[in-house]
Design goal:
Blueprint (H helix, E strand, L loop, with lengths): L6 H46 L3 E3 L3 E4 L5 E6 L2 E4 L2 E5 L1 E7 L2 E9 L3 E5 L7 E5 L3 E7 L5 E15 L2 E13 L11 E13 L11 E12 L7 H9 L3 E11 L2 E11 L5 E10 L1 H8 L5 H14 E3 L6 E10 L2 E4 L2 E5 L6
Antiparallel strand pairs: 1-4, 2-3, 3-6, 4-5, 5-8, 6-7, 7-10, 8-9, 9-11, 10-11, 11-12, 12-13, 13-14, 14-15, 15-16, 16-17, 17-19, 18-19, 19-20, 20-21
């Protein structure tokens, strides 16, 4: 008897197997398309939200691509302006793995420019010709948890005085939920600038090269909006800024401060800080031409009294309180500068 053949059954089995093999890629492709549309809708919704809040948000085009292993959103010529700040960029690219959209790699190729404006003060322009990049980490509920950005080949400029900066690193972090007490941290920020070159008019005793400037601070309490009503409520509730480190490494001068910042009843800055200063005599020589002879002599006496050697044969170090109150900056008992009024 000849063997039995089942051509129709064989064909059906082949079709079923082909469908089973094709289903996962097709399903993944459909899912990726849905995710890409969700990213596009999210970006456009965020732009609409900024406009609804009174800000300016614009761009020269939005695209989403990267199939199959990346979700990539690119904004051409992004332009964002809020109260007192404006950003214009050549391009912004955000990339994430489709299976982990909480970690977003940021790329900012081409020139990026930020302008900061304070009433009564000249605008400050910061331009990064080398572009930059970084990483944003989001929680599953849509809160930006951590942001890190790095830029190279920058120039900061105010009053037509350019300040070249080799590199600038920025960071910000906030908790998943707003703090419920004024002792808890609502926002942590960090700024580090390396390789700054001052104008020719810089004090000759300190030189033109600033090796490093660093800021690390924490906003305590629920984060306020940069407007008088919100800031006033935050300040009345006991909100403060904990300055963990403010440091400058400039020629023979090395200074590091820490302490507490707050706002007075007129929303003007107050500070109670402690400073550790290396190279204080050189700093005094640098500012001496701007001081009255009696003030300069008193300052030298105060420096001599407060300075202590770092060890046998070591250079003296000055540890002293630094305060800001009534629009004035004091180093110990000595007023060394006036503080401009902040207009919110």
């Amino acid at each position: 008897m000849p063997p039995m053949r089942f051509p129709k059954l064989r064909t059906r089995l082949i079709v079923i197997l082909a469908v089973l093999v094709a289903l996962p890629p097709i399903g993944y492709a459909l899912w990726w398309q849905q995710a890409a549309r969700a990213v596009e809708r999210g970006v456009l919704a965020w732009i609409d939200q900024q406009r609804a809040n009174g800000g300016l948000a614009d761009h020269g085009g939005l695209s989403v691509d990267g199939f199959p292993f990346t979700l990539r959103a690119a904004l051409e010529q992004p332009h964002l302006a809020t109260r007192g700040a404006e950003w214009r960029g050549a391009r912004l690219v955000a990339e994430a793995a489709p299976w982990d959209v909480t970690h977003v790699t940021l790329s900012l190729p081409g020139e990026q420019r930020v302008t900061l404006v304070q009433a009564g003060q000249p605008p400050l322009d910061v331009t990064a010709r080398g572009g930059g990049g970084g990483l944003a980490v989001w929680t599953m509920n849509g809160t930006l948890e951590n942001l890190r950005l790095s830029f190279t080949d920058l120039t900061a400029q105010a009053l037509n005085l350019p300040l070249p900066i080799a590199s600038l690193d920025l960071s910000a972090a906030q908790p998943n939920t707003p703090p419920d007490t004024n002792a808890a941290t609502g926002l942590t920020i960090g700024v580090t600038a390396n390789g700054m070159t001052l104008p020719d008019s810089a004090p000759s005793s300190l030189g033109r090269d600033v090796k490093r400037a660093e800021l690390s601070a924490r906003v305590l309490g629920r984060l306020p909006q940069p407007e008088p009503v919100s800031l006033s409520a935050w300040s009345r509730d006991g909100g403060t800024v904990q300055l963990d480190r403010l440091a400058l490494d400039w020629g023979p001068l090395a200074i590091a401060l820490n302490g507490t910042l707050a706002l007075d009843g007129e929303l003007q800055p107050q500070a109670a800080l402690t400073a550790e200063i290396h190279g204080a005599p050189a700093a005094l020589n640098a500012v001496k031409p701007m001081m009255r002879p009696n003030d300069a002599a008193m300052a030298r006496t105060v420096l001599t009294m407060l300075s202590r050697p770092t060890g046998p044969g070591g250079a003296p170090v000055l540890t002293t309180p630094v305060t800001v109150q009534n629009h004035s900056l004091f180093l110990g008992p000595l007023k060394i500068a006036s503080v401009p009024r902040v207009v919110w």
